[in-house]
Amino acid sequence: MFEQRFENAQIEVKLDTDDRCPNIHSDPDQLSQVLINLIMNAIHAMPDGGSLRIAIASTDDTVKLTVTDSGHGIPTDVLKKVFEPFFTTKEFGKGTGLGLTVVKGILEEHGGSIAVESQEGKGTTV
What is the spatial distance between Cα 53 and Cα 44, in angstroms, rounded to a whole number? Predict the structure, then answer.
């Protein structure tokens, strides 16, 4: 779905999977929406190309999905607001400010949680 976009944006993608991950009970369409939103945010954070790492691993009794980009990162004052409805850093008409709010809601409906770590100029991990 994203192959051409990654190529055009000069983004190298690495997929890390853990074969020991258990199956989870979820709505596959909703989890696809989570991944689409996280990948799109990563692409927007790397206008000059970069690297994207998508990983899934088993930790104790949970499954952990991480999406890490080498983009511009998120300033500390903005980081606190990223899950607020209608909060966006994108220019008018480029985003609704609902992407991460929707992602958070879907993950919480599935009994999960979400966290973001970021450093300006070094990238972001969700």
Answer: 15
